[in-house]
Amino acid sequence: MTMKQCIIPWVAAMLGALGLLSLAVAQPTEAPVAATAPAQPLSQAQLDQLTAPIALYSDPLLGAVLTASTYPLEVVEAARWLENPANASLKGDQLAAALQQQPWDASVKSLVSFPDVLRTMNSNLQWTEQLGDAFLAQQAAIMDSVQRLRQRAAAAGSLRATPQQTVSTEDGTVAIQPANPDVVYVPYYDPSVVYGPWPWAGYPPFYFGLAPGIVFDGALIGFGLGIGIVGPFWGWWGWDWHGHRLDVFPNGRGSPGRPWGHDPGHRRGVPYRDAGTSARYGGEAAAARRNFRGYPGSGANAPSPRSSSVPRGPQAAAHSQAQSSRPSAAPRIQQAPQARTRSAPRAFESFGRGAQVRSEAARGSFSRSSPAPRAAPAAHGGAPRHR
User: CA 62 to CA 347: how far, in whole Å?
Assistant: First the structure.
């Protein structure tokens, strides 16, 4: 065999090997992770769909629901805690003392006195998470949505003063307050009716049905039993509708207030879906997640990096509480299948106790019931039920 005949196959083999090597370098075995795209803000239609079931709550109850929705895991834990008959039977000072021992945010504790509201949030976790995420990312837009719906209800003749609550309009904003500041009534209504013709055909309002014993008395908004508030966890926040702020008053309503701020420590490791919100709170949330998972040197009840919703000062003893410890474009809000049972949201699957939370929340159902008749049940509400 000549020298040329020996060299040609060798050169060809080397060129082939080099080609395969360059192909392997050009095509890595794992695709790189795509950069997170900024989330698109929810539209007016999506926001109105979310807030429709609660927009007609009195201002204090609305504030508790919106802030508590930013801590979905603590909502689940509080609802499970309330399922214990020994806890459910507590009232007044005994209930306040028992809640002091829990590591939840004060807004979550305040909802324990409203078991129907707390159970609704727990049973509709996808809605609760979406509401909380929207409030964190678009607080001003959520407040505008509430005002937009209240004005529609007032124009439709559905929203008016009753023995349970007062309704006032000033400078274009509608305020709803309990008629008796110590007794709060939960309003029940069909969002597809109470606001008049619904303007967003593609986004029908969420509706969670009625609790037993609701009385309408010929109106479109009914009420159950009055609930006596638990003082240490109530009455320390107020709305500045024009300023788009929820203000907190750490030392009572007569003291200077400050804007409410989300506390990542009470997020308890649940990731933020909105990329901007995650960037805003992610560092503190990561530290809280380490505490929650029990890493060495990070106690489960370690103080949160910030606490903006827990009152301080002269009322600190009454308000003290132990601190515990998927970014994507905003999707179209999914419509709830009829009475479909679902497991815990995906957000709950990405931190230490995902399996436990899934088992806790598996009984929850995310449903949009058909409109219920407004005939008055046999039981009559109206007498305060102090807890």
Answer: 24
Cα dihedral across residues 125, 129, 130, 132: positive or negative: positive
Residues 6+ apart with CB under 8 A from 286: none
CA 272 to each of CA 11, 54, 347: distance values in angstroms, whole numbers, following the listed order: 57, 22, 8
Query: Which is it for strands 165-170 and 173-178: parallel, antiparallel or unpaired?
Result: antiparallel
Dihedral angle sign, alpha carbons of residues 345, 349, 354, 355: positive
Q: Is the dihedral of CA 338, 339, 345, 349 positive or negative?
A: negative
The answer to whether the pTM exceeds 0.90 is no
For residues 108 and 325, the model is more confident at 108
Q: What is the mean pLDDT of the chain?
A: 73
Q: Strand pairing partners for 177?
A: 166
CA dist., res. 112 & res. 101, Å (int): 14
Domain boundaries, the chain: 44-386
What gap in Å lies between CA 7 and CA 13, rounded to an integer?
10
Give burial (CB, 10 Å; 0-12/13-18/19+) of 352.
middle
Write out the DSSP string of 314-331. GGHHHH---------PPP
Spatial CB neighbours of 145, under 8 Å, sequence gap ≥ 6 = 44, 47, 48, 50, 51, 55
Distance CA 354, CA 359 (A): 9
Helix 139-155 and helix 125-137, axial crossing angle in degrees, nearest 10: 110
Tokens of 152: 């529609």
Residue 159 and residue 166: Cα distance in Å, rounded?
A: 10
Radius of gyration of the chain (CA): 26
380 has pLDDT over 90:
no
On the question of pLDDT at 73 being above 90, the answer is yes
Expressed in angstroms, the distance from the first to the final Cα of the chain is: 102
Cα(249)–Cα(212) distance, integer angstroms: 35
- Amino acid found at 187: P
Q: Rounded to an integer, what is the distance from CA 350 to the centroid of its chain?
A: 18
Under the banding of pLDDT at 50, 70 and 90, the label for residue 6 is low
What is the Cβ-side half-sphere exposure of residue 205, based on CA atoms within 13 angstroms? 24
Q: Which two tokens stand for residue 365?
A: 């159902």
Distance CA 125, CA 78 (A): 13
